[in-house]
Each structure stands twice: as structure tokens, then as C-alpha cells.
Amino acid sequence: MKAVRVKQWGQPLQLEEIPQPVPGNDEVLVRVRASSVNPIDGVIAAGHMQEMYSLPITLGTDFSGDVVSVGREANHVQPEDAVYGMSLQRGTFAEFAAVKASGVARKPRSLDYVQAAAVPLTALSAWQTLFDLAKLQRGERLLIQGAAGGIGAFAVQMAKEKGAYVMGSDIPDKGDFLRELGTDQVIDAMGERFEDVVGHVDVVLDLVGRDLVERSFNVLSPGGRYVTTIGKPSQEEAQKRGIEAHTTFTQPTVEELTQIAQLIDAGKLKVFIGRTFPLEEAAAALEFKQEGVTPGKVGIVVD
């Protein structure tokens, strides 16, 4: 099968012919139809996570496709089911992938394969930060830093569906996209200080980090919750301020993937594709993603 591989850290990606994987007892073998690019793909390829992965490695986390076979412990999907999900073992920039069963669920019926592959990691990250960690409630005021990115776009929609008031901060070129998502208050991250315009905030979802950590702490009301996918916020500082601070490493679950698919099929979550590339041009897809100019996910068409 064809697969996009990292052979040396920091070196160009290679398209290779490698053996088709054999699924374990707790895995599902998927004929991959599409994948999508996430920032972690570039991080891994550059060699910044060498302590977690060994070479050679096939890149790719998100996928959609069709079930070929299932292990003995994977009984919630069957061969020929159309599925989507994510693999923490990576390996989805390929024609076939053996994925842990916990990361595989039936794909949204209303989406094609490319659209479905754009959902898993970003939507699960939004879901788990907002609902599993921050426990966002109807009527609360949510500030999202980096709201027009892949995670932010889903977070805006999920929070609006929950009944929260959503403030989204990003570069001015992405203001129209944030309004299209339904953001209640769009903040120009380059032209105004969010501290001056947000009022009280119950929850901050920080997808940017750096100096925004302390600045986000400053706008949270007592009992507020700061959640992020980047770094580890100071628990000592959070306790001093009477707030909570959490970080997450997104973990796939069948239940949450299924709930997200149901929201999509009910028309409550929209999926945005910025551009697609064939599998053979995965390196160009990563470069395009890193430019970060066009809203929407970057898809990789495998078949």
C-alpha cells in the first residue's frame, strides 16, 4: 500500500510502498478514503516528539473510510461500515490503517469522506475542553483565543448550540469567518486588547498560549475555568486567583465521536474545508497548513 512516511526527522516526507497493516484484537482495519492535516503532523515530522515516536513513521491522525476487518474485541462496527475517527498511533496518511477500536465510529451520514476526515481531532478537542473539562453551561460567557482555527471553529458552534455567549479572538482577516460561525462578539486580536472589551468571562478556551495565558487568567471571574490544548498552565497561580486551569491531550472515544456525528447530521455543526490535496502531495498539504491563511481544514484525498 502507499503511505506517507517520515524517514529522517526534519527531512522531506517520502511516499512509499509498505505492507498493509494487520489489525490486533482491539483494532479495526480501515480502507482510508481521506485524511486531514493537523498541526501535530508538522510537529512530528520536524522531530519535536522524538521521545514518543520512532522512525520510520507514517503520519496522519484523522481518517474516514470503510471497515475492512475487525479484531475480536472490536464489535461496534462491521466490515463495509463507513467510519471516521482518529489514531493516536498515527498512520492515516496511507491507503490502509489499523486503528484502535476506541478511535473508530460510524461517520456522519450527511458528510462525504473528505468532510468527515476533517472532523475528529479538532472536534474532539473542542468537545473535551469545553464540556469534559470546563463544564460549560447555558448562559455562560466564553472567550476563545484563536477562534478561527480548526478547534476554534468547532468550539464556537458547540458553545452556541449549548446556549453560551461566545467571544472569539483572532486575526482581522478571519473576522467574517467567525461571524459566519455565529460568534456573538468578534475581537480583532491585532487591533484591540481583549481585556478592554470582553467584560466578565466564565470560561476561556486558549488555543494560542504564550502571553495569553496570564492575560486570560486576568479576565476570568472567580470560579472561572481556563482550558487549553497547549502547555501546562500554573496550578499555583490559578489557585491564587480562585479559578481552575486545565490542559488536555485529546483522547478519542466512540461515544463522543458518535455524539459529534449526530450533531453534524442534525445540521448543528458545519464542517469547513479550506483546500484538498492528493495523498501524493501530502508534503505540500503540510506546508499549506502551516501558512495558516485560509480558514477551514486541509484535506488529503486518498481514494
What does this structure look like?
The strands form three sheets. Strands 3, 5, 6, 7, 8, 15 and 16 form a seven-stranded mixed β-sheet that branches. A six-stranded parallel β-sheet has the order 11-10-9-12-13-14, sandwiched between helices. With 303 residues, it is an alpha/beta fold. The model has no long low-confidence stretch (mean pLDDT 96). The chain has nine helices and 16 strands. It has helices spanning 39-46, 113-117, 120-133, 150-162, 175-181, 212-219, 235-241, 254-265, 282-291; strands at residues 2-6, 14-17, 27-36, 57-58, 62-70, 82-86, 96-100, 104-106, 141-145, 165-170, 185-188, 201-206, 220-228, 244-247, 273-278, 297-301. The protein is globular, with a radius of gyration of 19 Å. A hairpin with a 7-residue loop joins β1 and β2 (14-17). 49% of the residues are buried. The chain has two domains: 2-122 and 252-301, Medium-chain alcohol dehydrogenases, catalytic domain (Quinone Oxidoreductase, Chain A, domain 1, Alpha-Beta Complex), CATH 3.90.180.10; 134-247, 3-Layer(aba) Sandwich (Rossmann fold).
